[in-house]
Design goal:
This protein has three helices and eight strands; from the N terminus they run ααββββαββββ. By secondary structure, it is of the alpha+beta class. It has a four-stranded antiparallel β-sheet with strand order 1-2-3-4, covered by helices on one side. The protein has a four-stranded antiparallel β-sheet with strand order 5-6-7-8, with helices on one face. It is elongated. The chain crosses the membrane at residues 15-38. Residues 52-94 form the Cell wall elongation regulator TseB-like domain. Keywords: Membrane, Transmembrane, Transmembrane helix.
Length: 175
């Protein structure tokens, strides 16, 4: 009589166990590496935010900081937005390279971003809106609008932040 090993449904071959274990280990290593890369990249993006916040508080009337954004125009800037003691909102433009205040603008002196966006939507109904943010070009405060136009081009349009008039525009063909 030939004896065979009795099998059960819960018996799994060794190669399956090692394959699953290997996949789990590789997945864990990839997850840790992705997290490490992400945190490293985010630290680079937010580098200098603390110093810019301090400069804005010391050199302007801002006391309550709402947010800090990066702007990469002719010069890399941190735009610190916040409120003064009297509740007026303003923006401090801090040079990332020189770590000094470039200019300070009160929000009430600027054209309303929502109004500019609404006017844009009325004139470009087949376009795809992306974003609007404050910037500084050639010592002029600008609203930078980004969108995809009706021809499928990626467009960066700068509008004078005080008057709302178009200042300059760049359109890039997407491939």
């Amino acid at each position: 009589m030939i004896r065979t090993q009795q099998s059960s449904r819960s018996t799994v071959p060794d190669w399956v166990k090692w394959t699953v274990l290997g996949c789990i280990v590789i997945g864990l290593i990839l997850t840790i590496a992705a997290y490490w890369f992400y945190t490293d990249i985010m630290e680079d993006k937010q580098e200098g935010y603390g110093a810019s916040k301090q400069i804005a508080v010391e050199e302007t009337a801002l006391i309550d900081i709402d947010s800090i954004q990066r702007y990469n125009g002719n010069e890399a800037l941190h735009i610190v937005s916040g409120a003064t003691e009297s509740g007026e909102h303003g923006y401090a433009f801090i040079s990332k390279k020189n770590k000094q205040l470039v200019t300070y603008v009160k929000k009430e002196e600027l054209a309303d971003a929502a109004s500019l966006e609404k006017a844009w939507q009325e004139n470009c109904d087949k376009c795809e809106w992306i974003d609007i943010k404050l910037g500084l070009e050639d010592d002029r405060t600008v609203w930078e609008m980004t969108y995809i136009d009706e021809q499928g081009r990626y467009v960066i349009a700068h509008y004078d932040a005080e008057s709302g008039e178009r200042y300059q525009q760049f359109a890039f063909r997407r491939s």
